[in-house]
Write a structure and sequence with these properties.
homodimer, alpha+beta, 3-stranded antiparallel beta sheet, DNA-binding
DNA sequence: GAATTATTTCGATGATCATCGAATTGATTC
DNA sequence: GAATCAATTCGATGATCATCGAAATAATTC
């Protein structure tokens, strides 16, 4: 999850908090001093410092009855390593990458699972064809009659459906024997070109 | 000014926008696809993409009637150079660094410019003394009588005021001749220790 | 221990903003 | 040119949040 990351950016997504970071980068300051410099009430500055502290960007040191805040340079340096490959990957940890295909299939199927029509658009047609191809067992060979028997459960125009499956290389055909089989899975990322 | 910087962080300070960045880091996507993947309406995704686009993080390419968005890797790499010395300095470009001292002086002076009292706290006393020392011309030498004549314009207890000025090394004293002069300016950052 | 001082917490308020649905725009297809 | 489709814009709504003042905490000084 990227809750930590979003909190980090939220902490820096405020003009006054950025100024606090900039000020603390030069020297330490008390809440009272920062409030005077930023023309804010101490309670507001305290709130900002709490948010910065939550993500480890600043820390406090008690001195007499002051709270002297300092920048945590280590946390800042972490920023320089941001957006590595892993960070970008972590952002989509909880994203369902198949949601789009499922939505497309849902839009083009009737409640009984048959197809309303064949999508005209390439990437939607592809999503529907991936849905249909699952009816074929990997490795098993089918003759044309068997293929049509399966396809008619989805769509009346079996010829068109079969042609598209072959065209998108989801169904392979032995041109001599008239045999068909499901093509090996390719990790298709659904790219648009 | 740090308006640009704050906009950059604001753009990334949202969970769904971070997911969009993560997704676009792997491949390009249309608005419709992103909406399905994130379970949002297209109008919402369009809004997010506009915000990301404003800070140069993504860009669009028209393809048929799709808008295919892609990540601007250059903008991401800029992040790795973030928080250099100049960036930190730029955050406080429009901060009035003397505001604290001015506030302290204001709190301890009467409308006519005389001191209500000498602050007990070190850093506030220092601010007030810096205010008083400006009455002395740099380079000019004063005898004790002249010093007192100036100081009494600020505070009745000239002895205490003079002692503090000397203690903080704002006023220098020649121990033989009983002469005083204003010390050379030192760039005091008002640090707390 | 009473008074002072800085900070934090709390509750309220106003502004900002994510999200949605509806309407509009822009482009494509037939 | 009419119909279709994706994207954007617009207006409204609800949530989040920056800011403040007041009250509570914590620490220090006398």
């Amino acid at each position: 999850m990227s809750a930590e990351l979003v909190a980090f950016f939220k902490a820096l997504a405020d003009s006054n908090r950025l100024k606090i970071v900039g000020l603390l980068a030069q020297q330490t300051y008390s809440v009272e001093q920062l409030a005077a410099l930023l023309n804010l009430r101490p309670s507001t500055v305290s709130h900002h410092l709490a948010r910065l502290s939550e993500v480890g960007l600043v820390s406090a040191r008690a001195d007499s009855y002051y709270n002297v805040y300092q920048l945590e340079e280590a946390a800042l340096r972490k920023t320089n390593l941001l957006f590595s490959q892993e960070d970008l990957a972590s952002m989509i940890n909880d994203v369902d990458l198949d949601a789009y295909d499922r939505q497309v299939v849902g839009n083009f199927t009737n409640p009984d699972g048959t197809l309303k029509s064949l999508p005209a658009q390439r990437k939607k047609l592809e999503a529907v064809l991936h849905y249909v191809i699952t009816a074929f067992k990997p490795g098993k060979h089918y003759n044309e009659e068997q293929v049509n028997k399966i396809l008619v459960r989805y769509y009346d125009d079996t010829a068109s459906l079969r042609r598209e499956l072959v065209g998108f290389k989801l169904l392979q055909r032995d041109s001599r024997g008239g045999e068909y089989w499901r093509a090996a899975e390719v990790d298709n990322l659904g790219d648009i070109e």
